[in-house]
Design goal:
The complex is a heterodimer of chains A (200) and B (491).
Chain A lengths: L12 H29 L15 E8 L4 E9 L9 H17 L7 E2 L2 E2 L18 H13 L20 H14 L19
Antiparallel strand pairs in A: 1-2, 3-4
Chain B lengths: L13 H32 L10 H32 L6 H24 L7 H6 L11 H26 L7 H18 L8 H35 L4 H22 L12 H12 L1 H17 L7 H23 L4 H7 L3 H30 L12 H36 L4 H9 L1 H30 L22
Helix pairs in contact in B: 1-2, 1-3, 1-16, 2-3, 2-5, 2-7, 2-13, 3-5, 5-6, 6-7, 7-8, 7-11, 7-13, 8-9, 8-10, 10-11, 11-13, 11-14, 13-14, 14-15, 14-16
The chains are: A alpha+beta (200), B mainly alpha (491).
Chain lengths: 200, 491
């Protein structure tokens, strides 16, 4: 439809059509550029998403004075289940854990990196949660809980996790996945988190 | 045209005959969504309800998947509804379109049956192929993903081929048609990005948000822009030139803000810090097109002194304009800046926004199309003032709207309590999470949500009853409306 001679530019169909097309194209180009940069920054083994083998180390979440937010500290060697893994072994274990979390549909009760459902707590820092009491018992408590949570202590609400038929191998893999996930730099989310005391 | 009032498919063109099939399944799936939503809401106040039988995760999965699929069926139906009039040609490949409808519907039933009967699988990749992918909103197993892509390709073939066939005798493709075609390409293409697995959870969620965000906050918004443009022409008699110009303006603002607005999902998943600024800024602009849609709808209604040929449809179009603005726009805006989102992300704020936005932006306009379809299906029957039995559509609209707003408020209040008690004070530990969940302010919110959920369900029952009976006892033909001067001009 040709624009009428007397038509105001801001009421013109053609003007808005062109504006729409150009804006969309420009925004898409910017998004693709940002995506290329982001994808390169979030590769496993980088600064934001540490290597799978970081499960061989202590993970902590500390307040950074300069940034005014908490940051992840990957500290001394502290292998999961007492067994130091190679990068490949660690990747295989974490992968099995993630597959298990998909297969049991964890995300439709819990949140993972804040995304999911809101019936059960966030799992982003599950590894660091004070719920586990102390470092010495954490790993085994987590495994036992995931395998058969129904009758274990949950909360005062009576809200419980069902038995999802997680095997021992799968439960250990899930713990590895959760430990690895706690190493991801989430820009300080969740804020003011109070992690499990791991000093003793 | 056959007898007035009789529900006769001879009243419909080919695309519209297929459209009403999609609408029927869409409406049924809305019922499924409501049932599973109620079951999940009950579990928030009675934790042992169906525990170990149909656990919360399963209820919630069916609840949100029914949502996605019924809205998608509603959109596909709406496109088939508009298609022949917009393209100026009979639907190309209609037979194939019909087959695909039955295949799609059967696939949905199989997926839901597996969700309910099998529920979970072993931690292997095969589980993702045959049981569930285990990712919120895209839980459907991979085989179903591929099926969806095939169905959408056939759908796209129907739409594109029809527009190109009508191009010659229609003087080109209409503005609505052009926007629609490009939107469908994007909608289908984006879905492909969610169809792969990676161990890297950050990368996984990065692409997963492309699917969710680019559907819900970009391509679906463009889709409802097209639907709104078409329905304002049909129901009010607004001129094509006006609705097309507005459509371009809206799409410009939607994609100008929405494409980079995706950044508000990239605050806390491990992605770089620059997304805090980019996501915060652009997503804060996302309400603007929704303001434009309100202005557009209300202004057009005013110009025509609200004289329209389908009161229920017009009512739902206005509900859409305001629902989209408040639910998607305002409710999104209130927690989209990272400084706030840090404390609200993954709390009942998100649930409150999710309910209001999906309902306000998408459920409402699909319901408007259901009413437009019923009117024509009954031979263009009267649906204006003093409509026989009009209490039903009015009351169902009141119950649905008040029910939804009540649920949204219940969750928002719970969300306020949660973000303060769990996040700001408690430091987001699991103990803090449960301290918030146990707090009377939170618990009361959950009870209110359940109560208003029942009200919403009652509204749905009335809606179904009304859609089945509206116009049945009318003897008057459709009210003629004053078309704008250029309304019927060639495109």
């Amino acid at each position: 439809m040709a624009a009428n001679d007397n038509e105001l530019w801001w009421a013109s169909e053609t003007f808005w059509k062109k504006t729409t097309i150009w804006t969309t194209v420009i925004m898409l180009i910017v998004l693709v550029g940002l995506t290329l940069d982001t994808v390169s920054q979030i590769q496993v083994g980088g600064k934001r998403v540490p290597a799978y083998s970081s499960i061989n180390h202590r993970v902590d979440y500390k307040y950074d004075e300069a940034l005014k937010r908490q940051v992840v500290i990957i500290g001394q060697e502290e292998p999961l289940f007492g067994k130091k893994l190679t990068e490949q072994e660690a990747e295989a274990l974490v992968d099995h854990g993630k597959l298990t979390m998909h297969a049991k549909n964890c995300m439709d009760c819990h949140t993972i990196l804040g995304n999911g459902a809101y019936f059960a707590p966030d799992l982003t820092k599950a590894w660091l949660d004070p719920f586990w009491g102390s470092v010495g018992v954490r790993e085994e408590l987590m495994v036992e809980f995931i395998k058969d949570p129904t009758d274990k202590l949950h909360n005062g609400l009576g809200r419980r996790m069902p038995n999802l038929g997680v095997t021992d191998t799968e439960a250990r893999a899930v713990v590895a996945y959760l430990k690895w996930m706690s190493t991801i730099d989430t820009n300080g989310f969740p804020n003011n988190f109070k992690p499990l005391d791991q000093e003793n | 045209m056959t007898a007035l009032r009789a529900l006769d498919s001879a009243n419909l063109n080919g695309g519209q005959k297929l459209a009403v099939k999609y609408f029927t399944v869409a409406l049924a799936l809305l019922g499924v969504q409501i049932i599973f939503g109620l079951l999940a809401a009950v579990q928030f106040v009675m934790p042992d309800f169906l525990f170990g039988v149909v656990d919360f995760s399963i209820k919630r999965m069916v609840h949100i998947n029914a949502l996605i699929v019924w809205l998608l069926f509603g959109f596909m139906g709406s496109v088939y509804w508009m298609l022949e009039e917009e393209a100026g040609a009979p639907t190309v490949g209609l037979k194939l379109g019909n087959i695909i409808f039955y295949v799609f519907t059967a696939a949905v039933l199989v997926v839901v049956a597996v969700y309910l009967l099998v529920q979970v699988g072993p931690g292997e990749i095969e589980t993702q192929w045959f049981i569930t992918e285990g990712r919120e909103y895209t839980e459907a197993p991979r085989w179903a993903d591929i099926g969806i892509v095939v169905c959408v390709l056939v759908f796209f073939y129907n739409v594109a081929a029809t527009f190109f066939k009508g191009k010659a005798n229609n003087g080109g493709i209409s503005g609505i048609g052009g926007v629609l075609l490009l939107d469908l390409v994007a909608l289908a293409g984006i879905y492909l990005l969610g169809m792969w697995y990676t161990t890297n959870v950050t990368l996984d969620q990065y692409w997963w948000w492309w699917v969710i965000h680019m559907w819900v906050e970009a391509t679906w918004e463009v889709m409802v822009g097209c639907m709104m443009a078409y329905s304002l022409m049909k129901v009010l008699g607004t001129s094509r030139k006006i609705v097309t110009t507005w459509l371009y303006l809206e799409v410009f603002m939607m994609l100008g803000s929405g494409i980079l607005g995706i950044g508000h999902h990239y605050f806390w998943i491990g992605t770089p810090q620059y997304w805090l600024s980019i996501g915060g800024f652009f997503s804060a602009l996302e309400p603007l097109p929704l303001v434009a849609m309100v202005v557009h709808a209300v202004y057009d209604a005013g110009v025509h002194k609200s004289r329209n040929n389908n009161h229920p449809a017009m009512g739902w179009l206005i509900a859409h304009a305001f629902g989209n603005f408040f639910g998607a726009g305002v409710w999104g805006f209130i927690h989209t800046l990272p400084q706030i989102n840090m404390y609200t992300h993954g709390t009942q704020w998100s649930a409150s926004h999710g309910h209001f936005a999906f309902y306000g932006a998408y459920a409402t306009i699909n319901i408007a199309f259901f009413y437009m379809a019923m009117q024509k299906w009954r031979g263009d029957v009267w649906m204006s003032s003093n409509l026989f039995g009009s209490w039903k559509w009015k009351w169902s609209m009141v119950l649905l709207n008040v029910g939804m707003i009540g649920m949204v408020m219940g969750m928002l209040v719970a969300g306020f309590a949660q973000s303060q008690i769990e996040r700001a004070i408690g430091g987001a530990t699991w103990n803090a999470f449960f301290a918030a969940q146990e707090h009377p302010w939170f618990v009361q919110g959950m009870y209110w949500r359940l109560a208003f959920g029942w009200m919403f369900a009652a509204g749905y029952v009335l809606l179904v009853w009304d859609l089945l009976t509206i116009g049945k006892r009318e003897t008057r033909p459709v009210q003629s409306i004053s078309y704008d001067q250029v309304a019927l001009e060639a495109k």
